[in-house]
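Just scan this pair:

***
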Amino acid sequence: MSQLDVLVSIALGIGLAAAVGFRVFLPLLVLSAAGYTGYLPISDSFSWMATLPALVMFSVAAVIEIAAYYIPGVDNLLDAVATPAALVAGTVVAAAVMTDLPPILKWTTAVIAGGGTAGITQAVTGLLRAKSTVTTGGLGNAVIATGELGGSLLTSLLALFMPLVALAFVVLFCWVSVKFIRRLFRGTSRARSADPGAGR
């Protein structure tokens, strides 16, 4: 396996893992469909993901998850559940597509890069939704849910068809996210400093 093949395999795994951070089940559905149709080889230990029952299960789960994020209150509750789920699912999808890597390299990359990327993406979207809930009373959450849905689908498809582009997108997203989080916490600290009664 050439170095380029290794890079593409890792990029594919990280791209799908990032998509999991937006929506847990949609990237799993895309992966299952790609494996079932024979477009994408899946590791032997995850071959069950390329079966018809898995495809049906992921389809139902994806539809329910997408619909639930448009229900006020439920979306915030789902964020609390989705964070650990995204870490696990991000690791699984990354490991499932890294077919020719040595086990130690595959699982190390899947846990650190796959699970880590999914966790970062989920954390950022959770912060955005929490901020929207506070500032708009939840009215703007539907816009965020739509953006997350589009981000998950776009990133999943990019990972499948243009893995290296997907990797570049993920790196850019993480860079922008770090700046956003720093600005968010800096703004919160300034607001507390400006309010004399904030600490009372």
